[in-house]
From TrEMBL:
Pathway: Carbohydrate degradation; glycolysis; D-glyceraldehyde 3-phosphate from glycerone phosphate: step 1/1. It comes from mine drainage metagenome. The keyword Cytoplasm applies. Keywords: Cytoplasm, Gluconeogenesis, Glycolysis, Isomerase. One of its GO terms (cellular component) is cytosol. The lineage of its organism: unclassified sequences, metagenomes, ecological metagenomes. GO terms for molecular function: triose-phosphate isomerase activity. This is triose-phosphate isomerase. PROSITE patterns: TIM_1, TIM_2. One of its GO terms (biological process) is gluconeogenesis. InterPro entries: Aldolase_TIM, TIM_sf, TrioseP_Isoase_bac/euk, Triosephosphate_isomerase, Triosephosphate_isomerase_AS. Gene3D superfamilies: Aldolase class I. Its EC number is 5.3.1.1.
Length: 251
């Protein structure tokens, strides 16, 4: 296993209301308590379930809370948006930024994502910056260049001290929710390129995401630059998410 502490984040996307979130946590916490304390675990429910999740998780420090996005602005006339300080009120430790679904449907640019990263860090949260290429870009042989350009676009202005506090999730778009997980050597190639692109990334957690399942998670974790997973579908069921993590770190 890698030297760096593994991190697994359940990205629930637009799934689970507050009561479903409470049920998940009730079932998941006892399973999570059995997982090595070396492993960091977080769940990212929708905004409307964060209060319920914070209350249900309060009794234990085993599982951290993450948000799925946030505004780059501190407050003001941004209808529908949520600020970092609002998330901090619910003990949110991580925030996923720049997920490909937000880049696609909400037209988030690298520039805006970079501003969100800085706002999250300023509020004391760890940004999980998601990057990844489309199938067309991969087939053209430009996956590495594309991912490094996304990183430069979002983090180029960040100081090295700040950049060392970021989590990066490599999620090839063609592998998300499709069941077509990326070959682990391909994922490692990108993770290695990310790590080597900046001195500040030497010890940050780099996650893989895209159809990660209990059956394939350990293969990724055996790769030297992959430290965990950003897990969508397989994080919605408590037993499946716990089995994925347990299997991944046992190898
Ligand atoms: P998936 O989603 O595990 O369902 O492929 C991963 C993600 O989008 O973060």
């Amino acid at each position: 296993m890698n030297r760096r502490a593994p991190l697994f984040v359940g990205n629930w996307k637009m799934n689970k209301n507050a009561s479903q979130t409470r049920s998940f946590i009730e079932a998941f916490l006892p399973l999570a308590e059995k997982i090595s304390a070396r492993v960091d675990i977080a769940i990212a429910p929708p905004f409307t379930a964060l209060a319920a999740a914070a209350a249900a998780l309060a009794a234990s420090s085993r599982v951290a809370l993450a948000a799925q996005t946030m505004s780059e602005y501190g407050e003001g006339a941004y209808t529908g948006e949520i600020a970092a300080s609002m998330l901090a009120e619910f003990q949110v430790s991580y925030v996923i930024l720049g997920h490909s679904e937000r880049r696609l449907y909400q037209h988030e640019s690298d520039l805006a994502i970079g501003a969100k990263v800085r706002a999250a860090l300023a509020a004391g949260m760890k940004p999980i910056l998601a990057v990844g290429e489309s199938l067309a870009v991969r087939e053209e042989g430009n996956a590495v260049a594309h991912v490094l350009a996304q990183l430069e676009g979002a983090l180029g202005e960040l100081s090295d001290d700040r950049a060392a506090q970021v989590v990066i999730a490599y999620e090839p778009i063609w592998a998300i929710g499709t069941g077509k997980n990326c070959d682990r050597d391909q994922a490692q190639e990108i993770a290695h390129a990310i790590r080597g692109s900046r001195g500040a990334f030497a010890e940050i957690p780099i996650l893989y995401g895209g159809s990660m399942k209990p059956e394939n998670a350990s293969a990724y974790l055996q790769m030297p630059d992959i430290d965990g997973g950003l897990v969508g579908g397989a994080s919605l069921d408590p037993a499946s998410f716990a089995a994925l993590i347990t299997g991944a770190v046992a190898a």
